[in-house]
Write a structure and sequence with these properties.
single chain, about 375 residues, mainly beta, Methylamine Dehydrogenase, Chain H, four-stranded antiparallel β-sheet
Length: about 375
Amino acid sequence: MQKITRLGMAVATALATAAVCTPSVSAAARGGDDGHDSSGHHAVFVQTDDPAGNQIIAYRRAENGRLTQAKTYDTDGLGGVLAGSVADHLASQGSLTYDPRHALLYAVNAGSDTVSVFSVDGDRLALRQVVGSGGRFPVSVAVHDDDVYVLNALDGGSIQGYTIHDGRLREQAGWNRDLGLDPNATPQFTNTPGQVGFTGDGSQLVVTTKANGSNLLVFNLDRSGAPADSPVTTNLPGAVPFAFVPNGSHGLFLAEAGTNAVATFTIHRDGTASQEAYAATGQSATCWIVAARNLLYASNAGSSTLSGFRTSDHGRRLTPLGNTPTHPGTVDAATTPDGHYLYAQTGVNGIVDEFAVNEDGSLTALGSRTVPGGVGGEGIVAP
């Protein structure tokens, strides 16, 4: 625990010194096979996480990848700020999640302990529902088929499960589990859980604990989608697991804030996890991760960069591709369904940086957009 405490202090110092933050990523949102939605519009949605009133900013995406603001939508909830955070007020990945199967968008309202559900039509949203999160300070949402899980960060952490019926969430009373983390560990932004997500086949639910134990928690799910009574814990000393994206049916690509690295893990059927590959970024506060085809990009909040990697041999090999600078405080990111464009939130000034993803994995800067009310905000998808 002494090592974790020193790590948290080091991360906090890096943030304060560089004036930037600390762990989908949003994973790449999957839409139609050709990268177009049903209405023919390309869109990117960005969450402000404003404590005075959370909003979703809708952007229309041109064929060349550039964004134009379309409209702003209220979530009817409040954003939240974890103590100690600088550029990443939720310190999580997956706070804004797109559900392509049902054309729905889920947004956490951390300050209201609720989740907003929007229907999606191109770059247009319609608020359909606001539901309780089943705990305090929701920070991440995961969806697989008709099942949805929300991760709550405070009071030791918890997950709450729902099923989707007619485009609305129905809370499942028996699908709530406490995580049992230390509720008093400080600072909050490094000691709250980072993400909830499904394995690729939907049979297991994974939660990262960051510095509060430095664990991967895996809940096996029964045929109805209900979680096991308790998770299987894999301890990763010093790693501070933050965010991940699936790799096949039973694998993860994981961003580690403690080691500033990307690692490949296999999640076994008994819930245990084993590392298959590892590659350091050489950067500071490596927390979020996003996938584009066979490419990975990790966000380094303390260095204000994106680190690229090419994956091969089913994720057992990670080849570093170098680092690309962004505006200060690189946090959450999203890629388009065809993998041709990447959009990175930078939390210090509330800016989204636009990039083209080249065939060799390098990124070409296209421009940037300032998000109204978006300083410290997290949550971005590109359906």
